[in-house]
Amino acid sequence: MRRSGAGKRCLVYAGFLPFLVFALFPFYWMAITSLKGNQEISDLQQIPLLIQKGATLAHYRYVLWETLFPRWMMNSLIVSGTATLASACVSTLAAYALARLRFRGSQFFGMAIFVTYLVPPVLLFIPLSRVVAFLRISDSPWALILTYPTFLVPFCTWLLMGYFRTIPREMEESAMVDGANRVQAMVRIVLPLAAPGVLTAIMFAFTISWGHFIYALAFVSSNPKKMVNIGLATELIRGDVFYWGSLMAGALLTSLPIVAVYGFFAKRFVSGLTAGAVKA
Amino acid sequence: MGMTSQKQPSAGAWRPAASEERLAYCLLAPAVLLLLLLIAYPFVASVYMSLTDRRIAMPGRFVGLRNFTELVLEDEIFRQTIWNSILYVVGAVGLKAVSGLAAALLLHAMTRGRPLFQALLMLPWVVPASLSVLAWWWMFDPMSSVINWVLVSSGVVGRPIRWLSDPFWARSAIVITNVWRGLPFFALCFLAGLVSIPREYYEAAETDGAGPVAGFWHITLPLLRPMLGIVVLYSIVMTIADFEIVFLLTRGGPRNSTHLLGTLAFHVGLSGGRLGEAAAISLFIFPVLAVVAYFMLRAVRHGTEVG
To answer: Is residue B225 part of a domain?
Structure first.
């Protein structure tokens, strides 16, 4: 009955090829630009898809030694790391309560988390800029450490609620029968079991913080304090063709931590994404 | 402390145990406090601000709905922005849905190598847009666009396309970049939906003489519809609230033809200092958010009921 021949199989892979090229070409172009010399970057007489005149690391050297790039990287690490860990703690507690405990208003709080998860930062950056100014933390990492959890906490809580629900209730109930109270059962039984979920949440939260744009652009303005993605986009850009090489080098270096994490956890990344982003 | 252990799992009316309830509120407190102070309060503040003529470093006067009426009735740039947003959302979400479904169907049909291809396809979604859009900016560069090089040297177009300086092509450029970024998410969600459709349905259809096309229309699409709905709704909010693609590629130009609500609010509020007006602009995202949140909540609930 089935007509799944080799021809049909080839057709599937051939059909997928354009998607693959579309998805990957910008990264290839980024990489190859970052390795070309300046003359070759601006020269379109030759085929630009390959490096013809020898690869150079000059752009990487420039970005690493002659710009504030290392400093921006450090800023991003500190802000993303702090905001992520703080959000993961707050979210784990909240998600446990929402997924496991029975209390009045639990449905309402669950809904509230879901709705705040949908609120895009673009809706709030104007009033938040006033809040940040009022707290006198404009133009400091604290402005971002404080505001990033507004999108990290709803996201992580929602993701972790789903994860807590997959842990069988019997495990903590049997611990409680053995004399442990609710808090002990939570700390000794449920949290260790939830560790993979918490790790996933941390990974996502870090990725989101690392790339977040609008708050980082709006609340921090002095050059040495910028996050790395903002620094690249605003300080390395001169509209001059000779900056493209270093800009691409910087963007590639900044993407590497994310891609490394992703490569390491690809499977979890994929399942976590669909679980957290679409399903309950 | 002992818990009042309920033997039968929450049947009928139950009173939550007091200690359990207290613990729940304690655990929730930090999250709720944060969301109240940094989402609920700013939202209320932004509604209030939008009713004033507030500027940076100046207290505002209450002006009622003037910001809104002026924007809608008199402000050409704002009206243009609304039109841009509609084009952008319809174009980008539509293309993402269609191409994402195509990619998911292809991935689903793969007999080997699916995890690898899936992982590669995901990269645009994984790498932060604020970095990858820089590559697109360079690819649309007026002088040395590699896309133009490919199109011209393969004879598809006669002369280079003015990607970011012509309104039509600038809009196309931001839609292409958004589709590039969002397609993997659509494909992945659809793939998850496809995997959950039992094979027997197709086999039964096949014995009844239905071909693969009929199978797609009568089995795949109807069963995928709930997933399709949720993903499209979610994407509408994310797309209308897009910021960095436009900010990095065009800054709203040429002649405001690519401004979205977020970039216009940024331009008016933080570059121009007119906070009241900017708050009003970004509040236009709210109705979309409210409608989408309503339908998504319904869908999510429905989904959990069905299982």
So the answer is: yes
CA distance A58 to chain B (A): 19
Q: State pLDDT tens for residues B72-125.
A: 999 999 999 999 999 999 999 999 999 999 999 999 999 888 888 998 999 999
**CATH number reported for the structural domain that contains residue B187 in this entry:** 1.10.3720.10
Q: Look at B272 and B29; give whichever has higher pLDDT.
A: B29
Match domain A68-163+202-277 to its CATH number in 3.40.50.10350, 3.90.550.10, 3.40.190.80, 1.10.3720.10: 1.10.3720.10
Q: Is A127 within 8 Å of B57 (Cβ atoms)?
A: no
Closest B-chain CA to A46: B149
The domain of B107 spans 82-266+286-306
A23-73: pLDDT as tens digits = 999 999 999 999 998 888 877 777 888 888 888 899 999 999 989 999 999
Partner residue facing A19 (CB), from B121, B128, B292: B121
Spatial distance between the Cα atoms of B236 and B296, rounded to a whole number of angstroms: 12
Give the phi and the psi of residue A278 in degrees, each rounded to 5: -120, -45
Three-state DSSP at B69 gives helix
Residue ranges per domain, chain A? 68-163+202-277
- Distance of residue A37 Cα from the nearest chain B Cα, in angstroms: 15
- How many Å apart are CA A265 and CA A257, to the nearest integer? 12
User: Is A259 in Cβ contact with B126 (below 8 Å)?
Assistant: yes
Determine whether the interchain pair B146/A1 forms a contact, defined as Cβ–Cβ distance below 8 Å. no
